Amino acid sequence: MLVPAEVHPADLPRGDWKSGVADVNGLRMHYVEQGSGPLVLLCHGFPELWYSWRHQIPALAAAGYRVVAPDLRGYGATGGPKAVSEYSIKALVADITGLMDVLGERQCVLVGHDFGAVLTWNAALLAPERLKAVVALSVPYNQRRAPPPLAGIRRAVGNGFNYIVYFQEPGVAEAELEADIPRFLKAFYYSSSAEGVEELQRRPSRSSQARLLDTLVETKRLPSWLRESEFSYYAEQFSRNGLTGPLNWYRNLDGNWESMKAFDEATISLPTLFIAGDRDPVLRNTRPNLERQQITVPGLKRTVILPDCGHWVQQERPDEVTRELIAFLDKVAK
């Protein structure tokens, strides 16, 4: 099926871009596909879409892979339920394995950025037989251990602001951010980019009573890695579908911790590649997890920390990320 206009920006590179809709785990999951060969599944983060992989999809297809990038549960043309309980990590992993079933594939290399990396790590625990290897971008593996995630975050920040804590109460973040989706996205993308993070770090700390936009760097210009037409696609998709589904991924953190009790202190043995930017604020806050990966991820083959790169690594530094992906895939997938 050709990509419908509403989910296919006009300025994509030329190529055999196709789209499908799969009946998966109670969803009508939209995905974009290109190429043939071993399957590579690309999982986006927050607040992104399949489109965050626009640079990698044609390059990986040209390198001999069947590349599929879905809009994950709650996002874009997939959409999803409103109930927080429907966003458990086990449901999210079942979405991925269900999509593989529809595609007629037994195994894939799973690649995830941001919350897509969290999904990838958990898929390696819950469905290792379905994966040849994994790639995580920006978020290192965090072994399950006490205390529950939200208690740990609250203890670390005290009375300070934390966006994950702010996202917890249904309706609160939606009321602020959906009032002006382009304003939110521009500030969020810029603040975690290499060019915005230093200014972000200079901003005074805020109390837990602050709103998210009070804590971000607001600018009239887009980060250099994002063209106006590309930004417009993100803004249109999130304006159409809202933020409740994406935010529900965060609202199930403690529930997921509880449901993964059987994997306490589990390690990842699948062949693994980790990529991040050295100016990523998420990496700064998870540095101990990065350093522990030599022990917690015995399958780790390579760690790449890109200089002068922020959080949106596959969009900020697309050529370097693509080269690393192809080199890794050629070793583990063919």
Low-confidence stretches: 1-5
Structural class: alpha/beta
If you average the pLDDT, what whole number results? 94
CATH homologous superfamily, by name? Answer: Alpha/Beta hydrolase fold, catalytic domain
Count of helical regions: 16
> How many DSSP-defined strands?
8
What does this structure look like?
By secondary structure, the chain is α/β, with parallel strands linked by helices. It has a single domain (5-332), classed as Alpha/Beta hydrolase fold, catalytic domain (Rossmann fold), CATH 3.40.50. Helix content is 42%, strand content 15%. The protein has 16 helices and eight strands. The protein has an eight-stranded mixed beta sheet, sandwiched between helices. Helix 2 packs across helix 3. The two termini are 27 Å apart. The model is unreliable at 1-5 (pLDDT under 50).
Write out key terms for the chains shown.
single chain, about 325 residues, alpha/beta, Rossmann fold, 8-stranded mixed sheet, 16 helices, about 15% strand, disordered N terminus
Summarize the structure.
The protein is of the alpha/beta class.
